[in-house]
Amino acid sequence: MQSKTTRSLLGGLILALVGWFATQACFPILRPPTARPAEPTCYNDQGMAEPCPSPLPETRPAEPLSKP
Q: Which DSSP symbol is given to 45?
């Protein structure tokens, strides 16, 4: 047989968990964003990580090398 203190502590813990899950379900803003594809990481000359420059789209096709 459980004492009243243990029962009330367990009840409070369960209520807290239920409330926490309810707020997470109702307010998705509080959740971390869903996993996005990781952006590529480039390293500069000093070895420090920095965001990669976005590749520029080709404006015209590359010209074939002319043979001499």
A: T
